Amino acid sequence: MRLHPMFAALRRHKAGVVLIALQIALTLAIVCNAIFIIGQRVQTIGRESGMDESDVYIVSQQWVGVENAEDDASVAKLDALQREDLAALRNMPDVAAVTPTNSVPLYNASWTGSVSLKPGNGEYDGSTPGTAYVSYYDVDDQALAVLGAKLVEGRFFHADEVIHVGGTDARHAKVMVISKALARKLVPDGSALGKALYIDGTTDPITVVGVLDTLQAPANVTKVPWNTVLMPVRLNSFFSRYAVRAKPGRLDAAMKATPDVLYKTNPMRVLDEYSVKSFAAVRRDAYQSDLSMAILMGAVCVILIGVTAAGIVGLTSFWVGQRHRQIGVRRALGARKVDILMYFQMENLAIAGGGAAIGTLLAIVINFWLMRNFDMARLPLPWIGVGIVAVLVLGQLSVLSPARRASNVPPVAATRAG
Amino acid sequence: MFGYYLELALRSLKRSPGLTVLMVLAIGFGVGASMTTYSVLRAVSGDPIPWKSSRLFVPQIDAWGPGGRRDGNTEPPDALTYIDAMALMRDHRARLQSAIYMIAPSIVPEGSGKHPLNVTGHAVYNEFFPMVEAPFLHGGGWSADDDKRRAAVAVITQRLNLKLFGGADSVGRTINVAGKAYRIVGVLGDWNPMPRYYDVFNSGGFSTDKDDLFIPFDRAIETGVTRDGSTSCNVSPKDPGFVSLQQSSCVWVSYLVQLDDMAAVASYRQYLDGYARDQQRAGRFAWAPNGRLYDVNAWLAVQQVAPRDTKISAVVALGLFIVCLVNTVGLLLAKFLRRSGEIGIRRALGAPRSAIYAQFLTEASIVGLAGGLLGLLLTGVGVLAMGSMLPRNIASLARIDMPLLLLTLVVAVVSAVLAGLYPTLRASQVQPAWQLKSN
To answer: What is the per-residue pLDDT across B349-375, written as a single tens digit (0 to 9) for each?
Structure first.
């Protein structure tokens, strides 16, 4: 096939060629980045929290008219209230296990700090070997059953290891259970089991007695989501939070019965519409913005591809109309139908190819800009490769119908005006 | 003449319905997507108090020094320590000022059988209300004297008033806040500025909780009304408890001042600097003064209250809009040039170039108007969809109003006319003689 007539024709339609190429370039650049964003969000949403999430719900409540002080008497009183609640919840027929907790994975409340293999390392530091940023969960000995996390080394807490302190009391328990990710970070070659760790720059050693396979941090901890620490501590404050595992299939019943059970234990408390929340809802809230971003980007991609395809169809149809006579001449001189078809397909391939070349550059530029301003990751080149193939195919498909119409122009058109 | 162009345009659009529909769809979707994301962007990056934002400032004092920062950051902490906030209140150097901390006490409604409820609010000084120009329905704020006496007074919003008193004028009545009786002195109308510029530290700018209760700061501290919200510590407090927190270097108090002119701003800057220098001399700070004084908009920018996703979405939607415009240019070009013959005849019959311009730009603007109407519909659908998709604290902010609707139409028409410029130029360059000959 000789390409000369094609380029000669293209030269006569500079504006149209430039417009189609530009449109394809912009489409490629935006769709590549948008799909990359979707991919990242979907990956984020799909992460395993390390919990057995079904049948788990969270109760957050606060007592009314209690002294929120941290002297021993007040703390003892607050702890008594909390133990009453725990007993009442554990007595519910639909409940399998309950633990007090400050937060759970993906929940919108976090207690964060740093741990170190050395005592008194007062500075927050996550980059030095043997130190790490962490999120804390203060729970009791029932937490493993509630969370359904997998213990891969050592043991979980014993009931007599659980201490109780005021909400801002810095005293710590003697033992802790950590996530495998944290264990690896602190002791890259070997086991962290039995090691003494120091938290938040303090000098009291805390022994690692167990390692969990995976346990994610709360939702607002985005930078280091896998370094988690469980401590056998009941926090005593004017509010409390409980993580509850319902018996299999009894989640709704247990959740529904919870407010009445708690009010019956002690009516002087606040429970509102968000107080009893299933873990499914916790997960949904945690990833809501990622999900909406993915949907929005998806919608933009669909519109973009539709508009570009329609644009190609429109302009090519116009060209076919304009070159009606030229096509007739070529047919009269012996060009077959398939030659005309191929001609328009090739023409589009050339334009789309040019557009894709510019689009590749543009995609990288946009990605760099997003990286600079919005902490985006680098767009992997294979993504752009897939994008290029996609826009070329899009161009070929869009041009198919006008090209077929062109190939149906009879040779006799050469003798007519127009 | 315009009527004639209108008729010509409509006839031409009817002649090639496919192309016309394509153009209208392209503009409609482009405008719809852009306006939907813009409505969210506008909500999260808006000025919460436009008439006054340049006179309200957030002071920062570096209570941590270089040791409290990581990763090369040089900004002081985002809030004040209790010690510094109280020193600033005592010195009282601004025209109006208030230390602010977030509270979420329980309220026990009167009458038996009602469960206690939780309200969110802030402990503030009397000058807070005139400073933020909070609109009172009944009564007003409390006095400086009330602050001094640590009076048990409260300002509530109409929302809470409705819940507790059925919406009646409740000034003078009492409510039970965290177990203590407070006398209501004022009821605020519907007031919930977003971003919550007076307490970005705790709200991050946006909060689903509405501020329903305000009580005097010193009274709240004295009676130990627990703070709700964040506490950032460089060094943990020595002892547990609220009192120990007040003596620590942890930051948890927001602060807002009103400074009416450049001179006042300059002298307040000087004052902050002098204060930090005094602290350095006294040995409390072992570093040079590193204070800041941002006005409301600068503060919102520094704190990056507008979510990144919103900005990315807006940029991507703008890209989509550009593609739609390029597309429209191409389609208009095809459409106009297809009528070269008609143009040739009109020119030959004596129509000047300007008449061709007018005719084709009229046609482009009709396409723009139709696209705009479709865009309006799609923006409506888009904003509704965003409402159900976005996180709750942002979703409630995206809404449709008259300015947005007008803007949608204007953007659609203006962009269609812009898109029509080049094709019109090409159309007007058609040589009448050549066209007449070839036909």
So the answer is: 888 888 888 888 988 888 899 999 999
Residues A99, A139: contact at Cβ < 8 Å? yes
CB contact under 8 A, B117 and A270: yes
In the numeric block, which tokens belong to residue A296?
Answer: 């929005």
Query: Domain residues of chain B, as ranges?
Result: 2-45+307-438, 56-302
ipTM over 0.95: no
d(CA A239, CA A319): 73
Tally helices (H) and strands (E) across chain B.
17, 12
The DSSP 8-state label assigned to residue B433 in this structure reads H
Q: How far does A96 lie from chain B, in Å, by closest CA?
A: 28
Torsion of CA A32, A37, A41, A46, to 10 degrees: 20
| Residue of chain A whose Cα is closest to the Cα of B241 | A70
- Judged against a pLDDT cut of 80, whether residue B42 lies above it is answered with yes
Q: What share of chain A is helix, strand, coil (3-state, %, to 5)?
A: 50, 20, 30
Read off the pLDDT of residues B263-309 as tens digits, 9 standing for 90 and up.
Answer: 999 999 999 999 999 999 998 898 889 999 999 999 998 888 888 88
Could you tell me if A100 and A163 are in contact, meaning their C-beta atoms sit under 8 angstroms apart? no
Q: For residue A251, with 0-12 CB atoms within 10 Å meaning exposed, 13-18 middle and 19 or more buried, which class applies?
A: buried
The token pair at B213 is 């209760």
Radius of gyration of chain A (CA): 32
For range A193-212, the mean pLDDT: 90
How is residue A411 annotated by DSSP? G
CA A223 to chain centre: 13
Site from A38, A81, A274, A304 to mutate, B interface, most B CB atoms within 10 angstroms: A304
Cα–Cα dist B296/A44, whole Å: 34
Q: What is the pTM of this model?
A: 0.84
pLDDT at B260: 94
